């Protein structure tokens, strides 16, 4: 589904990503972890072309993300993305947030879009808040709306960029629960996160990044049982002792 | 101090001096409002162009802003009124000098409009640039094109953010309209000076002018405040998501 | 399109134009100093809790900021002589001359704008600083002059300078009372020699070069200031 081949990205002398290669198959859940500054957010933003890269290739269902001939908006409409800071549009209510992409990009009718929106709000447990504005919701509620907004586009894959890092601790679980449900339903997911409990539960593979490189890329059981690199071992020992 | 001077017959043109005041107010309002229409439309376009990534769009807008910002309004007035007819093609110049209706008025409107447009451009630019990059990413990630991101995400919030400084620019246009007296527009300040010259009631004449400007300021401020209230986004206090 | 224009007139008028420029610069500098001084006083008055201080200061600032500068220039130009006549009781007193009227007008006008800039600057200094100063036993005056104002001014310097550039442009308005600043000089030469196009374009060019370089310099300084603090 998603193939990342030898991606490198740099700003002048500073190399953000160096020779990163991996893939995510249909129905796979891949967790990307690592210390801050390791490039994991940048890598995931390269997948849907939000960040350009200088070297390498990324293919989404065979379509090259970096090619000049690719219709990026169309490609992006097929990949859902959830951001660390939720990024709901503050001047629209929750239903309009979820409907905007459907109407403007997928060209659905307003009625269809609103029906879908309400159904998705029900799915994430927020149907009573349909007419509220993002500023009136808690962080956890906003993030669940953001997930609904991404799902409204019927994506083939979902990218999550540290979805719970900006949340107060008591709200993390409500978001993770939604993500776990998505994973068990078979959604292809690439998740940048520190939440190792989530990884242990539903991830198929775990990727560890450090200083712009993919240091380890292993099946979940192997990663948690016997991480091969020192850096991964150090990182795990630091974050698993919460 | 004798305010009855205003109901005394005027030196010329029949009527009383109060008519001169009213005429001055009329010209002040017309010049200011028409100039604002130009300033807002042209300034918005320029401000948006200054935020784009294409240099071919951004650079001309920047050049415009720098030129119109760094030359005093008085000098610009003189150039519009005295210089422009001399440097345009012969036919246009002659029309401007002989057949153009109310040349002082229209030159004042155009001059003030294009001058203020450079200031509006700066406000619009800073409003758009104050929106966190994540909002743009979220819009693009959905599959919206860049123009769509401006239309649905950046401009709705950007304009709300800049209502206070835009109000200030609107008020400034009313004050700057007084510079039109240097090319012969008989706006309020000009009329006040005329009345003082004919009646020697300097204090009274300028007091009336001052009070009118105060009332204009008050009215605009109150009106803009209620507009801001109407457009307020529920729950929005700062950056979205936190 | 520029044929038939005589740009030599600019060279011949050099000394006269230069005098006008000195006038503009002098008026700008003096008004800036006066305006900042008065503006600081007004800012402190507006920030005080005593109604007897903050209401008059607030009213003054709001009044001056509602009026066009030309109107303020007229007020002082026409009425200062009358006020002096009344005060001295001498019906034939000469007044203080147009330059000083203009200087007072600009100082009073700019003070209102500087007041708002300085007030914002003072409020941007964290309250903790004031508390720390009082905790040490400093008086209000000492806390202001030794702790708050120095920090406030450091943050404000770029904005104060930018306001100064605006003031420099505004001095061109002394034209309305016949004073000969740079624009006035250019205008007089233009009308005397019939060379409107050349002189006004030249004036625009000079103002542009001055203001553009000055604001570029302020921007560079802003970058350096923000890095060091």
Helix content of chain C: over 70%
Distance from N terminus to C terminus of chain C (CA atoms, Å) equals 52 Å
Query: Which runs of chain A of at least 5 residues are low in confidence (pLDDT < 50)?
Result: none
Q: Write down how many β-strands of chain A occur, each being a DSSP E stretch of 2 or more residues.
A: 10
Largest sheet of chain C: none
Give the C-alpha Rg of chain C: 21 Å
Largest interface by Cβ-Cβ < 8 Å: B-C, 41 and 35 residues
**Helix count of chain A, per DSSP?**
9
**Helix and strand run of chain A:** EEEHEEHEHHHEHEHEEHH
- Widest sheet of chain A: strand order? 6-7-8-3-9-10
Throw out a few tags for this protein.
heterotrimer; A: 242 residues; alpha/beta; 6-stranded mixed β-sheet; 4-stranded antiparallel β-sheet; 10 strands; 38% helix; globular; C: 229 residues; mainly alpha; flat
Summarize the structure.
The complex is a heterotrimer of chains A (242), B (242) and C (229). With 242 residues, chain A is of the alpha/beta class. Chain A is built from nine helices and ten strands.
Write the layout of secondary structure elements.
The complex is a heterotrimer of chains A (242), B (242) and C (229).
Chain A: E1 2-11, E2 14-24, E3 29-33, H1 40-47, E4 55-60, E5 63-64, H2 72-78, E6 79-82, H3 94-104, H4 110-123, H5 139-151, E7 157-161, H6 169-184, E8 188-192, H7 196-202, E9 205-210, E10 213-219, H8 220-225, H9 230-239
Parallel strand pairs in A: 3-8, 3-9, 6-7, 7-8
Antiparallel strand pairs in A: 1-2, 1-4, 4-5, 9-10
Chain B: H1 17-51, H2 55-69, H3 73-87, H4 90-98, H5 103-129, H6 133-141, H7 146-161, H8 163-176, H9 188-199, H10 202-231
Helix pairs in contact in B: 1-2, 1-5, 1-8, 1-9, 2-5, 3-4, 3-5, 5-7, 5-8, 6-7, 8-10, 9-10
Chain C: H1 8-12, H2 14-47, H3 51-66, H4 69-88, H5 97-123, H6 127-135, H7 140-170, H8 182-193, H9 196-228
Helix pairs in contact in C: 2-3, 2-5, 2-7, 2-8, 3-5, 4-5, 5-7, 6-7, 7-9, 8-9
Describe the fold and architecture.
The complex is a heterotrimer of chains A (242), B (242) and C (229). Chain A has nine helices and ten strands. Chain A has 242 residues and is an alpha/beta fold. In chain A, the strands form two sheets. A six-stranded mixed beta sheet of chain A has the order 6-7-8-3-9-10, sandwiched between helices. Chain A has a four-stranded antiparallel beta sheet with strand order 2-1-4-5, with helices on one face. Helix content of chain B is 75%, strand content 0%. The longest helix of chain B has 35 residues. The relative contact order of chain B is 0.14. By secondary structure, chain C is an all-alpha fold. In chain C, 82% of the residues lie in helices and 0% in strands. Chain C starts with 7 loop residues before the first helix and ends with a helix. The model of chain C has no long low-confidence stretch (mean pLDDT 87). Chains in contact: A-B, B-C. At the A-B interface, helix 2, strand 6, helix 3 and helix 5 of A face helix 6 and helix 7 of B.
């Amino acid at each position: 589904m998603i193939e990342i081949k030898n991606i490198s990205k740099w700003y002048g002398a500073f190399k953000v990503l160096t020779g990163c290669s991996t893939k995510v198959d249909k129905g796979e859940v891949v967790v990307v972890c690592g210390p801050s500054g390791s490039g994991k957010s940048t890598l995931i933003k390269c997948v849907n072309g939000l960040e350009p890269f200088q070297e390498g290739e990324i293919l989404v269902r065979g379509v090259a993300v970096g090619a000049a001939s690719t219709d990026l908006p169309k490609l992006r409409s097929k990949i859902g993305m959830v951001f660390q800071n939720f990024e709901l549009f503050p001047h629209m209510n929750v239903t309009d947030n979820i409907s905007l992409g459907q109407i403007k990009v997928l060209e659905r009718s307003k009625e269809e879009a609103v029906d879908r929106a309400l159904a998705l709000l029900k799915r994430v447990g927020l149907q009573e808040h349909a007419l509220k504005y993002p500023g009136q919701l808690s962080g956890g509620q906003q993030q669940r709306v953001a997930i609904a907004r991404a799902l409204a586009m019927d994506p083939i894959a979902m990218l999550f960029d540290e979805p719970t890092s900006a949340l107060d601790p008591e709200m993390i679980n409500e978001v993770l629960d939604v993500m776990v449900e998505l994973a068990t339903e078979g959604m292809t997911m690439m998740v940048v996160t520190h939440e190792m409990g989530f990884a242990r539960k539903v991830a198929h593979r775990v990727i560890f990044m450090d200083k712009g490189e993919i240091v380890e890329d292993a099946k979940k059981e192997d990663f948690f049982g016997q991480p091969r690199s020192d850096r991964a071992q150090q990182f795990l020992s630091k974050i698993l002792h919460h | 101090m004798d305010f009855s001077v205003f109901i005394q017959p005027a030196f010329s043109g029949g009527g009383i001096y109060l008519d001169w005041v009213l005429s001055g107010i009329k010209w002040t309002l017309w010049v200011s409002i028409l100039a604002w229409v130009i300033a807002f439309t042209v300034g918005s376009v320029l401000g948006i162009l200054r935020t784009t990534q294409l240099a071919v769009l951004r650079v001309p807008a920047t050049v415009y802003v720098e030129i119109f910002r760094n030359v005093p309004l008085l000098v610009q007035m003189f150039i519009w009124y005295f210089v422009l007819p001399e440097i345009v093609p012969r036919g246009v110049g002659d029309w401007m000098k002989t057949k153009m209706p109310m040349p002082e008025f229209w030159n004042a409107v155009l001059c003030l409009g294009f001058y203020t447009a450079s200031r509006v451009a700066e406000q619009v630019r800073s409003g758009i640039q104050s929106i966190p990059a994540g909002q743009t990413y979220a819009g693009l990630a959905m599959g919206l094109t860049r123009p769509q991101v401006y239309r649905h995400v950046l401009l709705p919030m950007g304009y709300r953010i800049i209502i206070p400084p835009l109000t200030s620019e609107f008020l400034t246009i009313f004050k700057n309209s007084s510079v039109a007296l240097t090319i012969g527009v008989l706006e309020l300040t000009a009329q006040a000076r005329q009345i003082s010259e004919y009646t020697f009631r300097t204090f009274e004449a300028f007091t009336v002018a001052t009070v009118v400007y105060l009332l204009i300021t008050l009215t605009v401020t109150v009106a803009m405040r209620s507009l801001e209230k109407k457009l307020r986004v529920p729950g929005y206090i700062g950056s979205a998501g936190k | 399109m520029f044929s038939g224009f005589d740009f030599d007139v600019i060279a011949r008028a050099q000394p006269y134009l230069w005098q006008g420029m000195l006038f503009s610069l002098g008026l700008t500098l003096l008004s800036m100093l006066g305006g900042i001084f008065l503006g600081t006083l007004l800012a402190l008055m507006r920030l005080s809790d005593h109604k007897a201080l903050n209401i008059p200061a607030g009213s003054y600032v709001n009044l001056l900021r509602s009026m066009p500068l030309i109107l303020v220039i007229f007020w002082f130009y026409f009425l200062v002589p009358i006020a002096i006549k009344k005060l001295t009781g001498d019906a034939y007193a000469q007044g203080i001359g147009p330059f000083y009227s203009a200087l007072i007008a600009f100082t009073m006008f700019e003070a209102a704008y500087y007041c708002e800039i300085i007030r914002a600057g003072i409020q941007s200094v964290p309250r903790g600083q004031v508390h720390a100063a009082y905790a040490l036993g400093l008086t209000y005056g000492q806390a202001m002059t030794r702790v708050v104002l120095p920090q406030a001014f450091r943050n404000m310097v770029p904005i104060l300078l930018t306001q100064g550039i605006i003031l420099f442009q505004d001095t061109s308005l002394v034209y309305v009372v016949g004073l000969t600043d740079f624009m006035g000089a250019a205008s007089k030469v233009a009308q005397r020699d019939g060379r409107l196009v050349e002189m006004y374009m030249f004036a625009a060019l000079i103002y542009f070069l001055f203001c553009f370089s000055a604001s570029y310099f302020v921007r560079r300084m802003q970058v350096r200031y923000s890095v060091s603090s």
